[in-house]
């Protein structure tokens, strides 16, 4: 099974140097969403709420600057005054 690495690039850059073995890119998509939910819940990225993108790159290398990028998950949010 291929190994995918889930790197968080939100100003802090959390590099995943361990990765996860999953069957294929479709399975990596599910892992990316689950992992993003876990990180967003535990880290509470305040910059995201200011419209600054929170990004996860899913690659085949233990560095976000090496290897192929298979998926990029980008989230932004804004609080609208009512």
What report would you give on this structure?
By secondary structure, the chain is an alpha+beta fold. The protein has one domain (11-75). It has 1 helix and 4 strands, in the order ββαββ. It has one helix at 25-43; strands at residues 3-9, 20-21, 54-59, 69-75. A 4-stranded antiparallel beta sheet has the order 2-1-3-4, with helices on one face. The mean pLDDT is 89.
SSE layout and pairing:
Layout: E1 3-9, E2 20-21, H1 25-43, E3 54-59, E4 69-75
Antiparallel strand pairs: 1-2, 1-3, 3-4
End-to-end separation in angstroms reads 49 Å
Individual helix count: 1
Number of domains: 1
- The level of helicity is 10-25%
Instruction: Describe the sheet with the most strands.
Output: 4 strands, antiparallel
Tell me the fraction of residues in β-strands, as a range.
25-35%
Strand adjacency order, main sheet? 2-1-3-4
Low-pLDDT residue intervals, each spanning 5 or more residues: none
CA-atom Rg in angstroms = 13 Å
Average residue pLDDT:
89
- Helix-strand pattern: EEHEE
Structural class by secondary-structure content = alpha+beta
Number of strands: 4
Shape: elongated
